[in-house]
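Hi all, long-time lurker, first post. I run a small reading group and we've been trying to get comfortable going from sequence to structure in the token notation. Rather than ask abstract questions, I figured I'd post a concrete chain and ask someone more experienced to write out its structure so we can walk through it together at our next meeting. Sequence below, copied exactly:
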Amino acid sequence: MFCPVCKKPIDLSGADTKTGETAFGAKEVDPTKGTRLFHEGQWVYFDKLTCRTKFNVSPARYLAGKAD
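-- Answer (accepted) --
Happy to help. Here is the structure in token form:
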């Protein structure tokens, strides 16, 4: 799987590994290993937080050229 913004490969196990828990029980992950965002009913994975931020600004721009 590749980041839809920069097209770099994503380590899914690293991006999804629980490193802690919020006060409300939500899973925390290490953002240096990758991150994800729930968008229109599915998880979208990114290799870093800056890519996720860019995606949030204009998701359609990046989903048009979506790579697996």
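A couple of things your group might point at:
The first helix runs from residue 12 to 16.
The two ends are 5 Å apart (CA to CA).
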